[in-house]
Amino acid sequence: LTEVMRVAQNKTNASIAKVNATLAEVSDIAMMVAQVQENSRMLHDVSPRMKRIALRLSMVEARLQGGNVSEVVEDITKRSMTDVLQDMNRALYRIMPSAI
User: Cα separation of 34 and 73, whole Å?
Assistant: First the structure.
């Protein structure tokens, strides 16, 4: 009977350890969700200001180009392409270490 009780106790301890590990993971996930929600809220608050700044920057660029709209469009296109290529590079970098 003692051997059976020891085996049962070992199984119970193993189950408790698994539950504790799962609870720790759930706690970590809950903290990450809270951080993502806070970051999303901040981005939502800052977004209108960033749009106004971008509009003002476009007006300044237009003045700097002497009102030449094609030059302004070319500069904005170059900047946008650079941003896209940098984002693609970051995404590729994130994928590669797991593939190696």
Answer: 40
Tell me the pLDDT tens digit for each residue of 50-81.
889 888 887 887 787 787 778 878 888 888 88
Give the DSSP letter of residue 1: -
Contact by Cβ (8 Å): 100, 93: no
d(CA 61, CA 78): 14
Closest to 76 measured CA to CA, from 60, 93, 89:
60
Q: Among residues 81, 75, 46, which one has the least CA distance to residue 58? A: 75
DSSP for 48-100, please give it.
HHHHHHHHHHHHHHHHHTTT-HHHHHHHHHHHHHHHHHHHHHHHHHHHHHHH-
What residues contact 72, with CB distance under 8 A and at least 6 apart?
Answer: 58, 61, 62, 65
The model's pTM is 0.44
